Amino acid sequence: MLMESQVNTIKAPSRLRRILIGRRPAFTLVRVVVFVATVFILVKFVVLPIRITGPSMLPNYKEGRINFISRLAYKWHEPQRGDVVGIRFAGTTVMLMKRVVALPGETVEFRDGKLLINDTVLDEPYVKLPCNWSSESRTLGPDEYFVVGDNRSMRLEDHYFGAAKRDRIVGKVLL
Amino acid sequence: MKIVWRLVALAVLATVAFWLYTIFFPSPEKLIRRRLTQVEELASFEKGEGLIPRALSLQKLGECFAPEVEIVLDWREGEHVVAGRQEILERAAAVRQAFQALKVEFLDKTVSLAADGESADVALTARVRVPGDKDFFVQEMKFSLKKIDGEWLVIRVETIKTLSRVMPAGSRNGLNHNLMQVPVLR
What we know:
By secondary structure, chain A is α+β, with helices and mostly antiparallel strands. In chain A, 21% of the residues lie in helices and 30% in strands. In chain A, strands 1-2-11-3-4-9-10 form a 7-stranded antiparallel beta sheet. In chain A, strand 6 and strand 7 (120-121) form a beta hairpin. Chain B is 35% helix and 34% strand. The A-B interface holds A 43, 48-57, 61, 66-67, 69, 86-87, 89-98, 135-136, 138, 147, 149, 154-164, 168 and B 76, 107-110, 123-125, 127, 134-136, 138-141, 160, 162-168, 170-186.
C-alpha cells in the first residue's frame, strides 16, 4: 500500500520537457556542448559557410546562393588551375570569389576575348558568356596565382581580377 | 570545503578586479579599436539627418584625425590624396550631400602596435553601403594612428591592393564583383 502511493507521487516528465531536454538532462547538456564545439571547430578550421554577392561569377555561381569554402583543400597541395577559390581581404568576413586560371611563374594575357597562358589559348568550358577582353601580358611571381571571374561579358574595367598572393587564398569553394 | 569556497570567491574577485582595471585603464589596442569604431559611426549617417547633428558629427569626425592627416586612395584610375583635417571634413560633407544615407563598417581589424607603444598600424576591410541597396563597396585599407597628447589619432589612411594587375586604367575598384560574406557566424 505504502509502496503504491509512493510510486503514484513520482510524476513522469512532461512531453514538452522530454522533447526539449530529454529524459536525462545531464546527457542532453553534454550533447549540446559537443554539438556547439563541433560546429565551432568545423566553421573555424574546416568549412566556411558563405553567401555569394555580385555578378562576376555568373552564370555558374548565382547571386544570393549559399556555398562553402574548404579551408583544408590546400593544406596538402597547392591551388590548381580551374579551382574556384575564396580570396580574403583583411580577413574572411568578406572575400572575393574567383577562379584560378594561371599558376606561379606563368605568363597570362587576354587577347580578343581569349585567355592565353604562356601564349597558348586556355580552354575554358566554364566561360559561357561572350567576351571581348584584351589586356597586357603579365608574368606571375613565384607565389602568385592569377584569378578571374567566369563572367567575362562584363566590361573589363568593371571586373576585379588579377594576381593574388598565395597567403590570400583561404580555400576552395566546394559546391 | 570552506577553503574551496574561499578560492572560488578569490577567483571571482580577481576576475572582477581585472575587468574593472581594463575598464579604467584600457590597453592601447582597445583605445585604437574604440577610435576606429568612432570613425565608423561618425562617417555613417541616416536619412533625414538634421543640420545641427550633421555639423556635430562632422566636427567629431574631424577630431578623430591628426591635423596633418593624409589619405591616399590608389584606385585604378589613379591616385587621389586627401591632405589635412579640413579637406577630409569638406569631402565628408560632400558625401553627405551626395547620398541620403550611408553605412560604413570596418571589418576584420588587426592592430599592430609599434615597439614604443606610441604608434600603430591597423589592417582592415572597409565596407560601405547605402541602406536598402544590395550592392556595396569593399576596400582593404591600412590606418596608421599615433598617440598625440594622450589621444590616438589617425595620421594616415591608405588603400591596399588585394589583387594586383597590369591592365587598362579607368575601372572602379571593388564594385560589382563577386563577393562572399559569412552570413551568420561572423
